[in-house]
Design brief:
This protein is α+β, with helices and mostly antiparallel strands. It is built from 5 helices and 5 strands. A 3-stranded antiparallel sheet has the order 1-2-3, with helices on one face. Strand 1 and strand 2 form a beta hairpin.
């Protein structure tokens, strides 16, 4: 497992690569091993996202978890930049309960790249499992121009 850190306005993010795919984004952490071409590309895409010049990521990802976790992550990955959906929206698509979707969102191993911050509760803003909690979620949504949804 190799890791490369990137400093962003959302904190220090550690990209984790295993077997040719990004498997995690974690807050804080430390570099480990020589950075691979994939880690360098992922870091560059995060820098571009942070600078406001990239709206989507084009990276091989490997989501560890149940088939349901993988399905929820696939649905989140399809949410366009600057837009939001609710847990209920995803639940209806997958034939599941919103609470189960919320748990899967909270277990997203690759936040930001898989944009769990774009998923809201039926009544608006909900928690965020990344460092800084809901404040980081708000910062990500503001960065994407979705802050009007928070009012």
């Amino acid at each position: 497992m190799q890791r490369l850190c990137v400093d962003t306005q959302f904190g220090r993010l550690t990209l984790v690569e295993e077997a040719g795919a990004i498997t995690a984004v974690r807050w804080n952490g430390a570099d480990a091993g020589a950075p691979t071409a994939l880690l360098k590309e992922a870091a560059q895409q995060l820098v571009e996202y942070d600078a406001g010049t990239r709206e989507s990521f084009d990276l091989p990802l490997k989501v560890r978890g149940s088939a349901f976790q993988q399905d929820v992550c696939a649905m989140m990955r399809a949410i366009p930049f600057g837009e939001t959906v609710t847990y209920g929206d995803i639940a209806r698509e997958l034939g599941a309960m919103p609470q189960a979707v919320g748990q899967a969102c909270g277990g997203n191993p690759i936040p930001i790249i898989i944009p769990c911050h774009r998923v809201m509760g039926a009544k608006g803003l909900t928690g965020f499992s990344g460092a800084g909690g809901v404040e980081t979620k708000v910062a990500l949504l503001r960065h994407e121009g979705a802050a009007g949804l928070l009012i």
